[in-house]
Design brief:
heterodimer; A: mainly alpha; MetI-like fold; 2 domains; 0% strand; B: mainly alpha; 13 helices; flat
Amino acid sequence: MARASTTQRKIVVTVIAWIIALAIFFPILWTILTSFKTEADAIAIPPKFLNFTWTLDNYITVQERSDYFRHFMNSVIISLGSTVLALIVAIPAAWSMAFVPGKRTKDILMWMLSTKMMPAVGVLIPIYLIFRDWGLLDSRTGLIIVLMLMNLPIVVWMLYTYFKEIPGEILEAARMDGASLGKEILYVLTPMAVPGIASTLLLNIILAWNEAFWTLNLTTSNAAPLSTFIASYSSPEGLFYAKLSAASTMAIAPILILGWFSQKQLVRGLTFGAVK
Amino acid sequence: MATQASRAAGRLMISPAVIVLFLWMIVPLGMTIYFSFLRYNLLIPGDHAFAGFENYQFFFTDPNFWPALINTLLLVGGVLLITTVGGILLALLLDQPMFGQGIVRVLVIAPFFVMPTVSALVWKNMFMNPVNGIFGWLANVFGVPPYDFLSQAPLLSIILIVAWQWLPFATLILLTALQSLDSEQLEAAEMDGAGPFSRFFHIMLPHLSRAATVVILIQTIFLLSIFAEILVTTNGGPGNASTNLTYLVYSQSLLQYDVGLGSAGGIVAVILANIVAIFLMRMIGKNLEA
């Protein structure tokens, strides 16, 4: 009796949860479906859910007309570049704060966090003018630097919370066995730190890929990553639903896949370790 | 037990991060403050005379300022309301045993990974467009006149779009917190005869309050700076109906080239964000000691 009611309850919960989940996911599903339609089918009323002629034309047109691949590569280079650069600066910092904490470590961490609280619009004008004077407007280099600086506090924090979990006794044991600092880092710490570094890398790529304040303000065409490129569809061109959908699908697919892998790290990274 | 040498090495390892962040925060912010006291327009060449508080005075008396401030607060408040309440309900639902839990979770989280320009344009064109959008079609099916969301209720439409993006974030964090709840405590309460509602209000909700606070504070930081969604849907309009502070500063500085006025606006935005930031920092700082 009790078992039957739990099963019943489970079925009811399953049905409700699936309906809500599909409703939340629907805009994404709809975008993906529309990307395979002809423009006529894309605006058909009533909407065609599956009963349309599937075509890849939109993907081909988007690439041919607007050199889509270049913007895609800009996104890849900018998000990867800014992430790697941030890791190079952040790993030593997080490392020393986790393993050789000083009196001011906590203050430094909090101060780094506070830089993240500054709204971008507060520094938009100086950055814009500096970039203009140095010829960095619409350049990938400029964007890599800005996104690296923007995400650096999150990177340091995430790495710090991961490094903190590596037990210090292991280091002492290695030291007792006569390992030098270099060997200690290479053979003892690095293997233990790799998962944390990988998660940080993943989350930061996602954040950089989707960034849409600096990319929109600092790039126009040459260095424009996908977030800027897609914004160009806000002109009447956006009325070509199927092409908008094809461009959008390609822009979100890589990050959807990466994101699903990094659900757990996302919580940790975005709450600065306050929720694990 | 750190030795002197290792402390020095430690300092050396921290310094690059500290220096670049310091430059990133202090130099441009200092420049913004400096510009905000100048009569400085990119279209008017020549030297930039000291203007005192003139820019601030212009900014606060700009007819767009109060609407922008109110829009900012409505945008933040509206999205917070939807995502926090919706997030708690969704987290409670997803915490129940069900078939295909993993897939349900993945579907619910997905909107968070969609870049803002894509989600805004997809909603604007394929859903909210009164002629070709899904909502227009639904309105026809139910025999009501189609509603032009972005021109008749621009701010509400943007709130809905942004809430769709942030609901997964709130859900994910609240769900994580919920799963860390001691199940024995709940079982004990159930044995003692506590019904589902009293269990929710006396055990779950207090347990969730910390995570909910974090959700609210972090979202506020991001929501104060909403920009892309406004740029690609309404351009702040019609009129100033969907202009928030970030968008107002953008339009004053990069569209009207008034560096001085835009800088004053930027500083106002920084102050507003800092008020929130102080609370957030305290919460996270407390956690550091634990």
